[in-house]
Amino acid sequence: MLLKNSWSYTETGINNQEGVFLLAYKTINPYTNEVVKEYPTASASEIETTLKKGDKLYREWRKEPAANRAEMLHKIAALLRKNSEKLAKVLVIDMGKLINEARGEVELCAIIADYFADHGAEMLKPTSLSSKAGNAHVEKDSLGVLLMVEPWNFPYYQIMRVFAPNYMVGNPMILKHSSNTPSSAAAFEKVVNDAGAPAGSFTNLFLSHEQVTKVIADPRVQGVALTGSEQGGSVVAEAAGKYLKKSSMELGGNDAFVILNDADLDQVLKVAKRARAYNAGQVCTSSKRFIVADNLYDEFLKRLGEDFKQLKPGDPMNEKTTLAPLSTAAAKQKLQKQVDDAIAAGAKLYQGNHPIDLPGQFFEPTILTDITQDNPAYYEEMFGPVAQVYRVSSEEEAIKLASDSHYGLGGIVFAGDPKHGEEVASQIETGMVFVNTVLYTLPELPFGGIKRSGYGREMSSLGLNAFVNEKLIVSVDKPDLGNAAGALF
Ligand code: NAP
């Protein structure tokens, strides 16, 4: 929750400008607008108890091999699958996700847990180095307690990306989730506890922003992983810098979807709608900018428009609904302002932007064209079902436009020849590019970006190594204290 100037945090909530006490963490169903449940902010003693338990467990875990922890991750995966329906409903009520997409998110979490259970210990094995100094190897040690600060758009998956690898590493974790998805945070913690994970291994705390900084400053905490906006990321990264803690930042994106002049439009349109409207368009790697070769532009625009019209708003619990509400009233207001400002600055409204006659936080899928570089929309991330479509007359122009972003998270390229698509992908300034397919997130693939999309990677061996101590050990059979080059003392 963004704290307004005249508001102040207390131990358990917030005093607003009139001095009225509000609980900061609450589930408000974005389909019905009903306040479902409120949660008090963590107390100082809860934080201290959590840090103590986490630090104790870190020291215990150091004495045992990583492989010992694999079984617990498999148990967690099994419990996720067993309780999938119940867990999926929590997501629907917390932030409005379509029930089918919510089920998919639970399954993806189970896949990630199983993957790191199966491969984590192998990835953590020491690596030998050939060196004149002696027998050298690098061990991968745990670091200590970590804080993860997570967003509401994939409330379980974002946690799991940090949780599964770091559980294998042996870093106990504290979760600070979004103030609008507390029920998902509590549900994830319950799965971990029900599986029988040791006390302190994963604790959900409803922390205020101020408490986040205090936790980062604590000497028992050795790192912070944040996924969220660049604004939130920059505050947390500043605290991590101040207290010299390792950090990884997974921030926003303004991904390009490049359609080259020999692309097969039938294939393109199989993924274009999904690439923009999945999760109601609230994905960091949603394709926010379609960059289309001149010869395909008119047909693409027409067919994307037709596809967008097929999206049916309604109850996200109903399997037939294909357009979910946005997560909060504030998210809808922000997106509406961005669209209004874009149009006021000269963008053309091709389609959409009408109010939807339902009480929930719905936003009609919208297409904007003719966005010039001086339009505020050109560099902004629009977090909802709004597609920007650009016309380009050459491949060079497409690559230049795709890279002309303050962000650099993902991207998609469609080309007649996938090899050529890869060549184009190599030239785009971004963290991940998928050619002739939708963007995937799987545990074996590193996930992350550059520029204002943040730094570091989650998932794969890169993500697993984000918070390890790569400790060098060198030994010799007989000491040689000669004048070898490189000998320091
Ligand atoms: P957000 O406002 O930055 O919130 C993310 C998390 O950071 C929440 O837990 C939030 O807590 C916390 N936070 C925000 N400001 C903070 C501060 N000053 N001090 C401490 N904690 C703070 O982002 P969001 O709106 O929830 O998420 C949407 C953004 O996330 C989009 O930009 C999206 O692209 C990005 N995202 C990136 C990835 C990726 O992998 N790169 C994945 C998903 C989403 P409160 O709720 O209490 O403010």
Automatic annotation (TrEMBL):
Superkingdom classification of source: Bacteria
Domain Aldehyde dehydrogenase span(s) in chain numbering: 25-472
Pfam family, one: Aldedh
Alphabetical UniProt keywords: NADP, Oxidoreductase
UniProt GO molecular function: aldehyde dehydrogenase [NAD(P)+] activity; succinate-semialdehyde dehydrogenase (NAD+) activity
Listed InterPro entries: Ald_DH/histidinol_DH, Ald_DH_C, Ald_DH_CS_GLU, Ald_DH_N, Aldehyde_DH_dom, ALDH_GabD1-like, GABD/Sad-like
Active site (record annotation): 250
Family, per entry: Belongs to the aldehyde dehydrogenase family.
Entry protein name: Succinate-semialdehyde dehydrogenase (NAD(P)+)
